[in-house]
Amino acid sequence: MADAMVPMTIEQALVACAAGDRAALKWIYQTEAPKMLGVAMRIVKRRSIAEDIVQDCFLRIWQAAASFDGALGNGRSWIYAIVRNRSLNVLRGEVRSDLVNDMTPLVGASDDPSPEDVLLQVSENAALRRCLERLDAARRRIIVMAYTEGLSHGELAARCNVPLGTIKSWIRRSLGALRECLG
Amino acid sequence: MSDLPDDLDMLAAEYVLGTLEGADLDRARALESSADDFRRAVARWRTHFLVLDDTAAALAPPPALWDKIEAQVAAAPQSAQRSKPAEILAGLSRSGIWGSLKFWRPAALAAGFASLMLALGLVLQLQRGPEPPIHVAVLTTGQGKPAAVVNVYADGTTEFVPLEAIQAPEGQVIEIWTLQNPQQGPTSIGKLSSARRIRLNLENLRKPEANHLFELTLEPFGGSPTGKPTGPVLMKGLAIKSI
Predict the structure, then answer these.
(1) What CATH architecture does domain A3-100 belong to?
(2) 0.80 surpassed by pTM
(3) Less Cβ around it within 10 Å: N or C end of chain A?
């Protein structure tokens, strides 16, 4: 595992993984695992489950690296899609019943930053932040909470004290507005 | 921002947001693995939303986590998933009970049934011909996740419809097999470098019927050297009569 072998970008590392280079996988782990754990943790709210998810994700990254297509998006967006999908599947009870049994609902864990604070951490230059700021506050909150905490329509309705149908139509209209704004 | 119809781009957006449920979620997953323009729309939305993932706190994983990953990776063939089903398959091929029900663990059966209920909806959406298929096989991965559907039409036309993106590694090929009866053994009915919708070649076989097995394995480039499956199983499923 000489330093000269260390890839420079996630994309290069994924190509190396596809070719069977385990050092490249380790490099991705060292670079991204803490953030991946944070993303999974925000969704599943259980440290041991989030760690299992990250472990599964690395196996998946290793096995599927050859299917990464740089023309579609960057390597990080590919990796975080895996983390998010896996976390959402666990949260929604689609996999690992042994984990799901441990999933007593943790509504609004108090140490989660508010959606407003989350958005403030996003670079002002990011198109998504600029466009989210054009939505009214209640709808912006819903989009940010849905994405970062993986909340379902029902959970969003309960948290925001708004009827389910209203949540659904708010989400749809907000995404429509984002779509126009993002161009 | 998209060449997709509005409603599909919105489906992509909600898929990335993570709020889709039920049939809408199934539809988005099926489109992601079968439609390039939908996949592009999903990737575009993901790229925009990635800035929100970056706001998650970085948490130090326990030191043992990498060791577990390394051990798992060392035991896992790349792109081919799980070596275990391959060993089972190899064993069954030799003993001539390839289609044995022991092959299916009860959990996989339950998962298969659940995915079947799910896939019936997909089948209706995916098939475009005027006639519905008379038999359908839902192919699931080792974890019971639906990964493809095989539709058999009344005239014997049989098509493979992937629901999951798979890509054969360099120098290998995905081979599609069917098992109609244990005496004959598995027969190759198609090869692919990546999962895409194709018509299967069943020229020298009977028309597929209930309980015929369909299975995909990873084989050396050019196909299995022995004419029988040798590589790891990617997915498998039994045909059933459609309602």
Answers:
(1) Orthogonal Bundle (1.10)
(2) no
(3) C
